[in-house]
Amino acid sequence: SLRYATQAAPMLIFRSTSLTPIFALATLVAVIEADFVGLVTEFCFEGNVSDVLVKPENQAHLQAPLINRMIMDTCRGMSFLPLHKPPIIHRDLKGQNILVDDNWHCKVADFGLSQLEKEFIPDDSIVNRQQGGTVLWAAPELLTSEQEVATEASDVYSFGVVLFEFLYRETPYQ
After folding, report:
1. Residue 92 is a catalytic residue
2. What are phi and psi of 36, to 5 degrees?
């Protein structure tokens, strides 16, 4: 349940049209005696960017002005994270974690792997220092060294891969 509270933190702090808002955080004890935490967020009717970009029925609608606006929505969502004190690293930015509402606005979602920027994490912290994220969107240095931790720069790299998704309308490296 600590993981889901961590996921909820950035979305509870920021009120932005470019981050998925959390409407409720519910905790239950499940039948199998495991903690269950549920997040109630805005329903984004169109789904995620990765799916939206490849659906044949969307192609006529997805012209340059709309793609540009969707990219800017994503930029605005990601720009809130380093402004937080201490800064927050998303660690799993990808098209599947950017949701599209019924007005075709993008909202950054899924903060399940997010963490505070390295310099703000105490050495004895229980915060997960693993690289996390999805390999195709991860910065190369996170894949080649166990010593590296995700930073704002690795989120910027992931955003560059997301731009590839937007512009080419396909999964990277396919």
Report:
1. yes
2. -125, 125
